Amino acid sequence: MATTKATGGLQLELSSDLKMLQELAQDFTTKEIIPQAIPHDESSEWPRAIFAKALELGLVNINIPEAYGGVDGSVLEECIVTEAMAYGCSGIQTALMINQLAVLPILIAGTDAQKERYLTALMDEGSVFSYCMTEPDAGSDVAGIKSTAVRKGDKYILNGSKTWITGGPVASYFTVFAKTDPDARHRGMSCFIVERNWPGVNTSKPLEKMGQHAAQACQVFFENVEVPTANLLGNEGEGFMIGMKVFDKSRPPVAAAAAGVARRALEEAVQYAGERTAFGQPISAFQGVGFMLADMKIRAEVARDLAFKAAWEIDQHKRNTLSAAIAKAYCADAAMQNATDAVQVFGGNGYSKEYPVEKLMRDAKIYQIYEGTTQIQKQIILRELYKGK
Fold it and tell me: CA-to-CA distance for 149 and 152, rounded, in angstroms?
């Protein structure tokens, strides 16, 4: 679904180069991620060693331009990699790919000097960049954030707190959204690059959560942090616009990751149902189980195609807000339903940590919540249906 015809249409087959990337990502997942999935789930350790190996192969920091040491990958290429990695462990995959979310504001609104300083450092240091939008009282309502950045001469004084910041415990840099005009709602939001070692920047211990344990998340606190005006991304008041543009590029890879979880749940269920017997035959022969497997296959196939379509559109410089919302909503639900059905197929064994589907079910739920809940995606879809009418 990646290549384009001369007419600009969409084909239903990946190009040879994209197939090679897919094979590389799948091979990496098999060799490096799957063997470490359970250990990292149990220890909640950030996958530094896996990150380093992925960096060498160009499987992380995919969207960083070549001028700054990256591979200048497309959103579709991100989707291909995230789908493959999430098949192995969506927690490790999320940890490995968090930089690609956090640098989007810089790619969208950064100056050449900002890109040179921070994107080059990210590649040279092999460090982690985290995205700071969500707050204790502002999740889906991003315009409701309360963090403030008050200008004082050539600096902004940043105060506030963020929560559920993936990569926060190990991040060296943050892209932070704060209000430069608190009374202006979304028009008063701005975006900044903040360095971890600046005075007043602190993080909590990793938050305990249901799934995706390897992708540590924490609270980040900003107390009278002096941010140089040179670290403002774009202009004051453009933060909300930057954040919305981020979603158009970040939601397709998240949807693709959910598709990877849906595919893994399907394959685990198919294998188990073909081997497990009851009343003298494999349980897959019973219509109640067989139809469940068929539905899981439908969801896995549609999920991948929707994610890739949304990525293809933004790569072709088409407006993909609707397709990204559709992909995010469908893929999130597909991952959760397939994981739930896989547990059901496994029966009592599915409830046991000795089998992989228990972890898949815990990991899948977050897709219906972060990057905009399924309900928010449906609000976007509804808005798009009536746009211009």
Answer: 9
Task: Give me the active site residues, please.
Answer: 371
Does residue 215 sit in helix, strand or coil? coil
φ, ψ of residue 236 in degrees (nearest 5): -55, 140
Structure confidence by residue, pLDDT tens digits, 212-238:
999 999 999 999 999 999 999 999 999
pLDDT digits (tens, 9 = 90+) for 136-154: 988 778 888 999 999 999 9
Pairing of strands 129-132, 173-179: parallel
CATH assignment of 240-385?
Answer: 1.20.140.10
Contacts of 184 (CB under 8 A, 6+ apart): 237
Angle, helices 321-346 vs 357-364, to 10°: value is 150
**Is the Cβ–Cβ distance between 50 and 32 less than 8 Å?**
yes
CB 141 within 8 A of CB 196: no
3-class state of residue 106 by DSSP? helix
Q: How far apart are CA 194 and CA 214, in angstroms?
A: 24
Length of the chain: 389
In words, the CATH class of domain 16-125 is mainly alpha
**Two tokens, residue 66:** 């070549």
Sorted by sequence, the CB contacts under 8 Å of residue 171 that are 6+ apart come out as 102, 127, 128, 129, 130, 165, 196, 203
Q: State the fold for domain 129-237.
A: Butyryl-CoA Dehydrogenase, subunit A; domain 2 (2.40.110)
- pLDDT at position 7 is 38
Distances (CA, A) of 164 to 4, 159, 208, 230, 350: 38, 17, 10, 27, 28
